[in-house]
Amino acid sequence: MILKTFGWSFAITVIGLAVAVLYGGWEAFGIVAILCVLEISLSFDNAVVNAGILQKMNAFWQKIFLTVGVLIAVFGMRLVFPVVIVAISAKIGPIEAVDLALNDADRYQELVTDAHPSIAAFGGMFLLMIFLDFIFEERDIQWLRWIERPLAKLGKVDMLSVCIALVVLLITSMTFATHAHQHGGAHVDKAQTVLISGIAGLITYLVVGGLSGYFENKLEEEEEREHEAEEEAKRSGKKVTVVQLAGKAAFFMFLYLEVLDASFSFDGVIGAFAITNDIVLMALGLGVGAMYVRSLTVYLVRQGTLDDYVYLEHGAHYAIGALAVLLMVTIQYEIPEVITGSIGVLLIAWSFWSSVRRNKALAAAEGGSGSSDDKTEVPSGV
């Protein structure tokens, strides 16, 4: 079962890591491995959401999602998107960006370094919004309750996450302005760049979230119509166009999944810029990681268990929040790639360990009481 589901992912992992060693030695191997883990950890909750929707689709649309969807997710968002980001921020053509990355590493590194404030501000704001919207949401299962309970209460204030994100952006850009005055005004344009790029990141998040909500509403409408059509068919004894309605619902499911994939691709790609500026290593790591996310989606659908490790989603979002902060800090200060890569991995590992402890506590409580009615209130121990 495991080999059948993850076989292609295992094969591509071996190929990707071998290419990394040939391209940049063992340091490149380490970076690609970290990026792969980062992509899987940040997209784990995406795989869970995907599985929940995918299991409602018929075999045809599942196959479309796992073929056409893979092309869009892996080759479109993980391979092409990083090149586009660099091309836009450095104001060069995509082909020129790829050519420089492969043939003139020094010049490419210079361009990326110059463009880093805009990339970091855009990505930092996008990731920060993902984290804030998660942490301010009321949820039944909480991991770090001493943080999440009070913040969930604060989250009842409308648009609080947007306000906080804008305050963070203003403070960051004002820090640059102050720094500029201390050095003869050399960084005035950079402060403006940070502000504009950060606002662009915020707008991008709101647009992607809006589209996701739109498709989700459409999906619910189609499912309701399909249900009504089925009831009408039972009453009249006629063969109504239930298949066509199911097809529409499945189509909207597919569109919704692709929008979700795009939004989660943003955090993976932007987070990758906090670890490396090398497009080749980024493409290798994120591409391999994306394959595992797809395989994990299929595995969850076939197993039918989506919530065995309930704190992993929390860990992934805390990793996103940490990367957001680190990206904003790297606008002015250099942070070693090992630190930026390791923090996310440690948070995921911690949330996984907490999930295992919770499962053991649940099993012990169930064995002791002979009942499983109190599952939601088992303490996380943190």
TrEMBL record:
Provenance organism: Streptomyces vietnamensis
InterPro entries linked: DUF475 (IPR007427)
Coiled-coil parts of chain: 212-239
Name of the protein in question: Membrane protein
Keywords: Coiled coil, Membrane, Transmembrane, Transmembrane helix
Transmembrane segments annotated in the record for this chain: 7-26, 32-53, 65-90, 118-136, 157-181, 193-215, 240-257, 269-294, 315-333, 339-356
Signal peptide (from-to): none
Database matches in Pfam families: DUF475
PANTHER family registered for this protein in UniProt: MEMBRANE BOUND PREDICTED REDOX MODULATOR, SLL1022 PROTEIN
Recorded superkingdom: Bacteria
